[in-house]
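Batch job 17 of 40 flagged for manual review because the log was empty.
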Amino acid sequence: MTAVSTTTFDERALESLPKAPSFVAELRADAFRRFEAMPVPSQETEEWRYTDLSAFELDFLPFADGGGPEDLNLHELLSSAGVAGERAGLQIQRNSTVLSTQRSAALTDRGVWFGNLDEASRIHPELVEPFLHQLVPAGRTTFTALHAAFRTGGTFLHVPRDTAIQLPIQTLTYLDADGAAVFPHTLVVVDAGSEVTFIDRYAGPDVRRAFSDAITEIHVGDGAHVRYVSIQEWGSGVTHLGIQRATVGRDATLRTLNIGFGASLARAEAETILADPGGFSEMLGIFFADEEQHFDHRSIQDHVAPNCTSDLLYKGALRDHSRAVYSGWVHVRPDAQKTNAMQTSRNIVLSEHAKADAIPNLEIEANDVRCGHAASVGPVDEDAIFYLTSRGIPRAEAERLIVSGFFQEVLDRVKIDEVREGAERAIQDELDRAALGQDRDS
């Protein structure tokens, strides 16, 4: 394999980025050297077996300005932020530029830092530098190196010790620049004994071609409780590559929810490291693919310490000619005795042309554990369809009820009302489009 070639991500583009603090500039320079030397990940490796990027051209605009107030459709931006609800903080980034950050008194009065990652790097380097790219190193892949070299904007959240924030905090990254690359980066550091809910939302209109290279790093301190939600609703034409990696401290809890409806190609990696005894991780996922969409989901439940619990449940539906892959790995390391880990992936296929694969994996190096996995791929249950239609329910409505019920197991575990209700509406919208397609074909 040869190193990636590119005409737009070069030294001139790197030098044209907004000036950064010295530690970020050094990180950029090192990452750029790695990017130039590293190959595009190959399907010859197990990690990239199901997503072929050999013909993917990295010829995007490296920096797409977010414009000024006169260029904004404020209503469209705010509607993309999701269901209206109270927020302790809200940040909006358009393309490569953070446009606004709102912080409530619940944050500022209690020493919580929330806002632009670039601003945090300048004002509080002592908070950012120890954690930036610690969980997702720049040298992990070509794309993490590219991200570390060309990232601008992004979000930093630091919650100090023994601080509970009741209302959610949210960042919206909005991509509407055709031909652009964006590098969303969310860095969440929650100190011991604290509690917070954070929502990452990616949205935008359909574009001819664009690229999202996203990284999320979550540090959960001892005894802390964190909820993290990622909602990926990019428009068609976007290629999205995302890595979410978290570490969980002693007796701490991390609950994550990853929702995927957008992008033409989306590859999302979610990894949780149970680093200290007594940690708990819940990893939930929902996706609905249609037309020619390609989704590749990968998860890792990494049990390093003893007496930890992890529970993963991913559910997806596919129609038209879409393609989805789920590959999960539970790794129980030698010292991780008394581990309790479960991994479940369920897929429902709504078209004879759609295809899904579910590949669970266990690697157990300890002898006193409880681990299990379950995976399934199949069409709508015809017996259930027959039962409903025999009672006068039209087939399309019967299918809608079954698919809605299929997702309900995940949605019932989502404790944030607006997120759950938004996911329910998105699923119903997908089913409405499917019903319209069937009407046109009949």
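Reviewer: the log was empty due to a logging misconfiguration, but the result itself is present. The longest strand covers residues 210-220. Unflagging and moving on to job 18.
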